[in-house]
User: Fold this.
Amino acid sequence: MKRILVAVVIALLASCGNKPSTTDSTPQKNEYPKTGQTKTFDLTISAFDWEVAPGAIYHAIGYNGAIPGPRIEVNAGDHVVIHLKNEAAEPHSVHTHVVRFPSSSDGVMYGVAKPGETVTVEWEAVFAGTFPYHDHAGMHGEADGLSAGLIGPLIVHAPDEAPAVENLVMLEDMDLTRYASLRGLGIGDAGPPDAGEYRGGHQYMHTINGRAYEEWTPRFHAKVGDRVRWRVISIGREFHTFHVHGHRWKGQDGAFTDNINLGPGTYSTFEWLEDNPGEWLYHCHVPEHMEGGMVGIYEVTQ
Ligand SMILES: [Cu+2]
Assistant:
């Protein structure tokens, strides 16, 4: 009898181990309670020319005329409604990561806007963090939409988040065939490359927030003593790293790092208390990607 009781207790303990811990307060594992608030956004998909770098004109398709599209910024627990209007020539959608939604809002088989159509998708933003949203029309139609520019950031603030200077970074790989002109590579009417214009084999291909090279990518600013929060999303075709000079932060494994790995469709939110003034590079550490434009400047003043 005693042996049976021990076996039952062991079996119960084993089954408990398969369930989510009720004491785990990690936001990625536990949903935040609903706020009762609804946040509504209008996204219009259209074709437009986008300047990836001075003179580098890209035949883009994007959300609201920019790469990336607008920030969808909400609080954890908010209900999100998006009216998606498609003014482009092909079906497109808006799909996102780490929210709860019905399959009708997935943007793959359902929730897709045909040319001229407006559809509504709804998400429950119950997890905090930084995530991408992007086109996902059709089971295999994702890559073209992403490289055309149909990408954007979803920022979900946790209720206990400390106020911070926030730096948003979207790493994206641009498609060389979509350029109307490209200085240095002699595409279109840009003319032959001048001496010294090449900076790498992947020139103008790798971008930060739709822009290439430090003269054109976001220049981030902070002051000593600021809490600085980085929201980094990788949404292109290739694997990147994200490296900031002169700083380190706690990576997802809890160890300190100054360079994190980001595959396509991954993201990271991290922060530090600023204590190192100066002009610092931030960039992908793959040499061809950095030489191809994935580099910017972070300036810290006293
Ligand atoms: Cu890279």
Summary: The domain at 166-301 is CATH 2.60.40.420 (Immunoglobulin-like).
